[in-house]
Design a protein that fits this description.
- The chain is mostly helical and about 220 residues long.
- The protein has one domain: Four Helix Bundle (Hemerythrin (Met), subunit A), CATH 1.20.120.
- The protein contains 7 helices and 2 strands, in the order ααααααββα.
- The protein has a two-stranded antiparallel sheet with strand order 1-2.
- Strand 1 and strand 2 form a beta hairpin.
- It starts with 12 loop residues before the first helix and ends with a helix.
Length: about 220
């Protein structure tokens, strides 16, 4: 009888892309305070690969919980480290960057952890009845990409402006234009993160109530 060879999910194509994202992110972190060009290139490539690993997972049928978790952690840590640097570069705006980090990390952690407790296969698999906004956000890839890209563009524009205003168009630095146009997207993105928290708390309360009912029945 031939023994079936167990798959090594750590070597799945989307997960390999995920490792590349982490390496590029670390290189970016190393140069954030010394060489903004290298930092920008590595950070941007790492962010763009975030879209590619999802397509790879679907194309090769290699979607895994490990890959989803790896992807989520890379996203959160990348944005967090960039915000930490911005808080250092712009000390007068430190509170807002710290607040942004807290919202991003805590809300996504709560939502992901609650999804796992519910037995859901992915942090993006939501009940359509929970929120129309989140349904559009997660089921429409164009909307999701626009929101994520706009959010990253705002923080990256703020980072670049510390070193250079970039090319001038009609008397206005192009990086400044990107910053102002992407600011509303970043604000909405934070609002969606807070919506993650609201939905997660609601679902977690349901889990708690169901568990308490089971305990009460056992006691009776």
């Amino acid at each position: 009888m031939t023994e079936k060879i167990e798959e090594n999910i750590f070597l799945f194509v989307p997960n390999l892309i995920g490792y590349a994202r982490i390496i590029l992110a670390f290189i970016s972190f190393y140069y954030l305070s010394t060489n903004y060009i290298i930092a920008l290139v590595c950070y941007t490539i790492s962010a763009l690969l975030d879209a590619i690993d999802g397509y790879a997972a679907r194309y090769f049928n290699q979607g895994t919980k490990f890959g989803a978790m790896l992807d989520q952690l890379t996203d959160r840590c990348g944005t967090m480290c960039l915000c930490a640097v911005l808080a250092h570069l712009y000390p007068s705006h430190m509170f807002w960057y710290l607040l942004s980090m807290c919202i991003d990390i805590s809300c996504h952690w709560m939502y992901l952890h609650t999804s796992i407790l519910q037995g859901k296969s992915s942090h993006k698999f939501i009940d359509m009845s929970e929120s129309k906004i989140m349904s559009l956000y997660y089921t429409n890839r164009t909307v999701l990409f626009f929101m994520c890209a706009g959010n990253e563009c705002f923080y990256l524009a703020r980072y670049i402006l510390f070193f250079t205003p970039g090319p001038i168009i009609f008397g206005v630095p192009i990086i400044s234009m990107i910053q102002y146009f992407s600011l509303p997207v970043a604000v909405v993105k934070s609002g969606i993160s807070l919506l993650h928290l609201v939905v997660a708390c609601k679902n977690l309360s349901i889990i708690d109530c169901n568990e308490r009912k089971k305990i009460t029945k056992k006691i009776e």
